[in-house]
Specification:
By secondary structure, this protein is an alpha/beta fold. The protein contains 14 helices and 23 strands.
């Protein structure tokens, strides 16, 4: 079958494209603003796509999968509707063609989904379960963000964002997990949810799909998650135990039931992610000892405090920050490792929630561990960023930011964005190379 994917370079849709190709389908796609790592992954898999949503580029296909970034008014969407072509959402296609007869391990929550799903996939691989997976990032241990195997186990990042313009249910409603992780729960996605209660209703719909021989894994004393359970709980629970994180020669270490994880990841949030992955794997029979051994060899995920460039004096990181809590945990983890060394946070307010101004004060607090903050002023916003940050922290262009960075002689430069940030890494690296 020829399947054409609109929004093919998104983290979910790009991963879906790889699985559809593995099933033997011919895959093409369109997107706007394609950038690494997804562009590289599509190129490596010889999946062809065009840049832009132009009607003239829309091929004759047997099925069109439409990403949730597209809506009415888009040239290609209008053409599909007018010609009455067959179309569906990515989440529904995956459910009907891949997940319906497998043991699904779903990783949900506001933060840490990609990292936790990556950890779990690697644990299952290490334990020789050969899992299938679909994750919103490229897992370093695998080199891809998705794959399809003959294993009964399928690990998926279970996102609460809506499925498509014609299906406003959260994507995770389609997945029907038997093992479900709810890592945390906060208000996010202000463009489609009006309140935390709206999100909690979607999570309640999700937990209603978990069978009574399934399990829901979650942290202790999380009021927002417990309020979801108060609406009705039909499955077993696994409440995560507490653990203590400390620094090690590798990075950080923690113990769980007389087993040790000692890895190069930083921060309490990654320990939490690791605990979720350990107990999700344990639900299908992986021993805790084996799970911890696997995490000791976990390499991480691209764009999660990933080192992009290093000199004697400067280390440049890429981090997929999209929410104040994620920013705070990343910077706190780095601060614990580097002590009093200079940290420069470079931030693009790109997500709809960040641009809406819902988290104004928490955004300021989240950056407190950085010695210096550089923010690209958003072109469209509903609030005045100038009231929160001094003019020395606000910049009109990436070029202005890179010029400012070129005057800083040492430190840890953390670029935080869930987009391409106008090719900022190549521009920073060019400046650093010229300076050296």
């Amino acid at each position: 079958m020829h399947i054409h994917i609109l929004g093919i370079a998104g983290t979910f849709m790009g991963s879906l494209a790889l699985i559809a190709k593995q099933l033997g389908h011919t895959i093409t796609g369109q997107d706007h603003g394609v950038y690494p790592p997804m562009s590289m992954q599509l190129d490596e898999q010889n999946i062809s796509y065009t840049d832009g949503y132009y009607r003239k580029d829309l091929p004759q296909a047997e099925l069109y999968i439409i990403g949730n970034a597209l809506s009415r008014g888009n040239e290609c969407v209008e053409e599909i509707l007018n010609r009455q072509y067959i179309y569906t959402s990515g989440a529904q296609w995956l459910s009907e063609n891949v997940l319906h007869d497998r043991w699904v391990l779903g990783i949900s929550g506001t933060h840490g989904k990609t990292t936790t799903a990556s950890m779990l996939s690697w644990i299952l691989e290490y334990a020789e379960h050969n899992p299938s997976f679909l994750i919103g990032g490229v897992v370093e241990n695998f080199g891809v963000s998705s794959r399809l195997t003959n294993s009964n186990f399928f690990v998926i990042e279970a996102d609460e964002y809506d499925s498509a313009f014609f299906d406003k249910r959260s994507k995770f409603i389609h997945y029907r997990p038997k093992t479900l992780v709810i890592n945390n729960l906060e208000f996010d996605h202000a463009d489609i949810f009006d309140s935390l209660k709206d999100i909690q209703k979607q999570f309640y719909n999700l937990i209603r799909t978990v069978p009574n021989n399934g399990i829901i894994i979650h942290p202790q004393n999380n009021t927002n998650i417990e309020q979801v359970f108060d609406m009705g709980l039909y499955s077993q629970q696994q409440i995560l135990p507490t653990a203590t994180l400390s620094l090690s020669d590798n990075g950080t270490t923690f113990d769980i039931e007389n087993n040790t994880v000692d890895w190069n990841l930083l921060g309490e949030h990654n320990m939490q992610n690791g605990l979720c992955a350990i107990y999700a794997a344990h639900h299908i029979g992986v021993e805790l000892k084996t799970a911890c051994e696997a995490l000791n060899t976990f390499k991480g995920v691209k764009r999660r405090l990933e080192v992009k460039y290093q000199t004697d004096n400067i280390t440049l990181y890429d981090d997929f920050a999209h929410h104040p809590t994620a920013i705070q945990t990343t910077l706190s983890g780095l601060r614990a490792k580097v002590g009093n060394e200079n940290i420069v946070a470079i931030l693009e307010l790109r997500s709809n929630t960040m641009k809406s101004g819902v988290h104004q004060q928490s955004l300021v607090n989240s950056l407190s561990k950085a010695n210096k903050v550089l923010i690209l002023k958003p072109e469209k916003q509903d609030w005045c960023v100038n009231t929160l940050f001094s003019k020395n922290s606000l910049f009109d262009s990436v070029e202005d930011i890179t010029t400012e960075l070129s005057h800083i002689k040492y430190g840890h430069f953390v670029v935080m964005s869930n987009g391409s940030f106008d090719d900022i890494f190549n521009k920073i690296i060019t400046k650093l190379a010229l300076k050296s």
